[in-house]
């Protein structure tokens, strides 16, 4: 089994709308293993590090204000191809372009309220996980279901 990890965050709109359990359930039913989970109030500093490539773009101040407006559920998921498949499960960044059956396709309407964030590459995942979690907050454990999920 691959030990690839990804960072998934339920944004303030998803938390406020009570979608956390639905989103966790989709990743669990897919067969991915939850290895980190916490409720966080993101600081402006954390968001500036997380969205470093966007800090100087015109949309960043509004995005940072939104992301710090309420709690975020930060998660680390583990499994084979979890970065790529996590993005597929989330759907297109703009919910209007997301297929039904994806998280954004089922729960999102506006680009600025697209419910979740997901790492877009293994490198980004490693960087984002390190930003949001201390090493001791990630749990290494064996899932009894792994033999039924992986060959």
Could you characterize the architecture of this molecule?
- The active site is at 117 (pros-phosphohistidine intermediate).
- It is an enzyme of class 2 (transferase).
- It comes from Arxiozyma heterogenica.
- This is Nucleoside diphosphate kinase.
- It catalyses: a 2'-deoxyribonucleoside 5'-diphosphate + ATP = a 2'-deoxyribonucleoside 5'-triphosphate + ADP.
- By secondary structure, the chain is an alpha+beta fold.
- The protein is 40% helix and 16% strand.
- It has a four-stranded antiparallel sheet with strand order 2-3-1-4.
- The protein is globular, with a radius of gyration of 15 Å.
- It starts with a strand and ends with a helix.
- The mean pLDDT is 96.
Task: Note the topology.
Elements (H helix, E strand, L loop, with lengths): L4 E6 L1 H5 L3 H11 L2 E8 L3 H7 L9 H8 L4 E7 L3 H9 L12 H5 L8 E3 L3 H11 L13 H4 L2
Antiparallel strand pairs: 1-3, 1-4, 2-3
Distance between termini? 8 Å
Structural class: alpha+beta
Radius of gyration: 15 Å
Query: How much helical structure, as a percent, in the residues?
Result: 25-40%
Descriptive labels:
globular; 151 residues; alpha+beta
Quick rundown:
This protein is α+β, with helices and mostly antiparallel strands. The protein is built from eight helices and four strands, in the order βααβααβααβαα.
